[in-house]
Amino acid sequence: MYLLYTVIAGLVSYLILKWMKMRRYCTDVKRLDGKTVLITGGNSGIGKETAVALAMRGARVIIGCRDVDKARKAVKDIKARSHNVNVLYMELDLANMRSIREFCTSFLQKEKRLDILINNAGMPSVLDWTDDNFSMCFGVNHLGHFLLTNLLLGRLKETAPSRVITLTCENYKYQKLDFQDLNYNLLPFFTYCRSKLANVYFTQELARMTEGKGVSAYAVHPGYVQSGWTCHYSILFRILMKVIMFMFFIPCEMGAQTVIYCAVSDTVAGSSGGYFTDCRPARLRPFAKDSGVAKKLWEASERLVKLA
Q1: CA angle centred on 160, ends 110 and 281, rounded to 5°
Q2: Which are the contacts of 78, defined by CB distance < 8 A and separation ≥ 6?
Q3: How far apart are CA 223 and CA 267, in angstroms?
Q4: Is residue 194 in a domain?
Q5: Contact 36, 63 (CB under 8 A)
Q6: What pLDDT, on the 0 to 100 scale, is given for residue 207?
Q7: How many CB atoms lie within 10 A of CB 85?
Q8: Is there a contact between 209 and 299 (Cβ–Cβ < 8 Å)?
Q9: CA 183 to CA 133: how far, in whole Å?
Q10: Which of 25, 169, 249, 292: disulfide with 245, CB 3.0–4.6 Å?
Q11: Residue 5 is assigned to a structural domain of this protein
Q12: Average pLDDT along the chain
């Protein structure tokens, strides 16, 4: 009898874990022939799986990556999996404003189209600083993509209708922004949450500013994904998280589905500024929909990256 109870408990636990990891897949098979897609951090994780999926649809896919060796290997793999040779990489370090500006100058010289920009790259909860003395999370996750998007916005408008998809996280709800200390870098988890909230505000303000100009913006929570973010931590933490991620987190391919959905689906066309997860719109906390805060963050970000 004890053995039977053990088996039943194990089966129930397995089914619960299976249910927790269930996610929708993007079933839209729309082609992207003739379209150009730029994905930051497209050499691994969600970014790489997104690159494969969009390349399979015929898009010209460019991945922005700071590690050239990893980028080369990723491009080779993406080409093999997608059967699309129109995949390439460009060096980009989102922790360095000069690198971002040089990347954009080079991109605009070489590429005549930009149909879809996917702000995918991100830093986890780490206490570190960018080359420009911004906290790593806020500097990469928000400011780096803010500058990148703004410098490429002209090309996005020229190629309209175009889309900007920025990856965020539902952890945004655990923090609010402090405009007296946007560069907060004290408690790693809170720093990360603030950067993800900034992604939400950025998407909303970008949608407002580009309304009627053919550029749509979407914020995506991909779910909790079995990606390589733990490489920034100790070996013991990586081992622990490997077990936890195996049990509760979803594979990268599944995590990419909502990003792919927002990139190709016609059903999101009227939802610019929206927040999506599991291939459908999701509700934001009321404080995360404050247009006044979104505008204030935009203006502060312009000053910080010396764009104004």
Answers
A1: 115
A2: 42, 48, 51, 52, 55, 61, 63, 84, 87
A3: 21
A4: yes
A5: no
A6: 98
A7: 10
A8: no
A9: 9
A10: 249
A11: no
A12: 89
Q: Is 192 among the catalytic positions?
A: yes
What pTM does this model have? 0.90
Look at the chain and report how many structural domains it folds into: 1
Looking at the chain, how many residues does it have?
A: 308
**How far apart are alpha carbons 11 and 258 in whole angstroms?**
30
Ramachandran region of residue 99, left (φ > 0), alpha (ψ -120 to 50) or beta?
A: alpha
- Looking at residue 290, the DSSP 8-state letter turns out to be -
Give kind and range of the element (H or E) at residue 62: strand 60-65
3-state secondary structure of 165: strand
User: Which tokens hold the place of 94?
Assistant: 């989102």
Task: Provide the pLDDT confidence category of residue 227 given band limits of 50, 70 and 90.
Answer: low
Residue 132 lies in domain: 28-304
Instruction: Look at residue 214 and tell me if it is in a domain.
Output: yes
In a domain, 96, yes or no: yes
Euclidean distance between CA atoms 65 and 212, whole angstroms: 32
118-141 pLDDT, tens digit per residue, is: 999 988 777 789 999 999 999 999
Torsion of CA 91, 92, 95, 99, to 10 degrees: 90
Indicate whether 19 pLDDT > 60: no
Question: Measured between alpha carbons, how far is 195 from 142 in angstroms, rounded to an integer?
Answer: 6
CATH number for 299: 3.40.50.720
Of 176, 183, 152, residue with least CA distance to 300: 183
Calculated CA dihedral for residues 179, 202, 196, 278, nearest 10 degrees: 150
List C-alpha distances in Å: 284 to 25, 81, 142.
22, 36, 18
pLDDT of res. 63: 98
What six digits make up the tokens of 262?
A: 């927002």
